[in-house]
Amino acid sequence: MPNWNLIGSLIFPNVGGWVGAATTMVGQVSNQKNNSWYETIKKPTWTPPNWVFGPAWTALYTGMGYASYMVYEDCGGFNEKAVLPLALYGGQLVLNWMWTPIFFGMHKIGWAFIHILTLDIAAAACAVSFFKVNSNTAYFMTPYLCWLAFATCLNHSIWELNKDDPKTE
Length: 169
Known about the structure:
This protein has a domain at 75-164. The protein contains six helices and no strands. α3 packs antiparallel against α6, α4 (80-105) runs antiparallel to α5 (109-133) and α5 (109-133) runs antiparallel to α6 (138-162).
């Protein structure tokens, strides 16, 4: 018999990533010349190639999903003990999903930077609350926190490089 709670925990966080990717593929990041908006803005030399983001986020979403499953199981399901860590998880996940439309859809690099700083705090709070339930969740949340730190630095650098360009703010 399949463990639907585990399967759902692994798939659910990826849904927002898939929706975000789909919205970028249907033209929200393109300009009138059919060029990708992201390709036209200035980026630091240490920006990863575009193909890295899909696999990285899939692994990170799946890892944090598994961490949420560990918390769910260790707390005995959705109960009083699970409320805070799983609410923090849901909150940071929604913040994560909202970043893509702000950055890519609205081209608001500065607002996206402020948003990702908020996400960093929420994700750290979630990771700490998960750790208090099960210390092994750190194996899944730490890569996510590290990637968020990298993404925050990248967002800030892109903002600094483009903040005088009217098409980005």
